[in-house]
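**Protein fold record**
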Amino acid sequence: MGAGHVENRPTVADGIRLGLRALVYAVLGGAALIAVVTVVSVLGPLAALDLYTPPVAAWWTVFTAIAVQGVPFLLLGTVVSAAIGAFVPQRVLTRLLPRREALAVPVAGAAGVVLPGCECASVPVAGSLMRRGVAPAAALAFLLSAPAINPVVLVSTSIAFPGQPAMVLGRLAASLGTAVVMGWLWARFGRAEWLRLPQRATGHEPGGGIRAFVAGLQHDFLHAGGFLVVGAAAAATFAVTVPRSVLDVFTGSPWLSVLLLALLAVVLCVCSEADAFVAASLSGFSPTARLAFMVVGPMVDLKLLALQAGTFGRGFAVRFSAATWVVAVGSSVLTGWWLL
């Protein structure tokens, strides 16, 4: 080893600095939250004099219920996702998958139960799997299943729909079925020229230790939290502003209600750890329609379309997302007819 070589290994001082930085973030975040609550508590009664009407009260109630219920599961989901991205070696999946592509697809899909990830992390992780020799069909099955059937998502669904275990089982069956079918469809009909394999690592590459964990947690929670707030606001606005006569047109038809909520899931971009609470708030729709909302959302939405286009190419993203939407809706309808 040359005299000028300096090893770049993490030291105790680095760990202390990282811990202090996390503590500062926590203190600043808590102070900001206290400040916001204080301002709202002071100005709220004044604003209520002008704004407090039944529609505004209903909007605020729905928005608060969705956001407050969803945030703990969002935080837990991003912690799990960041921990897996930072500490679980990529070879865990590559060693578990069978060599035969047809068998690797359902195994990779089922791995989403034990190796969860948020929607944002699943795209670069799938790209990493492909670079390491995993069949694209299996990697794509994992991409779809990981954010849709992980334990955090299933627990949040059970809390959002208390006393309705069929809804949890239906979400698991429809989501896993969609992931496996899409993997098999790609294995049978996919073309290599449609898929642009990523050439370099991304921020969600597994491995990297505590620094990668902190960075991944910050990115995922802030990114997904923003979409949760937008989704909660959109759901509350939808519930308050859309006239009942318009909803009756859709809720009166099982097919139209399913298609409407499946399209709404694409636009709202709600994180999978919290979308069950949004679905539960749409009480005017049938259980099958709300199931379609929860199945489609983690697999096809606008932010995922952008991520897939940037990672695998625009042509792939358009073809794959369109086919996934059709399969997810069909799987939801079949599962709803069977269970709900």
In short: The first helix runs from residue 12 to 51. DSSP finds 15 helices and no strands in the chain. Confidence is low (pLDDT under 50) at residues 1-8, 200-205.
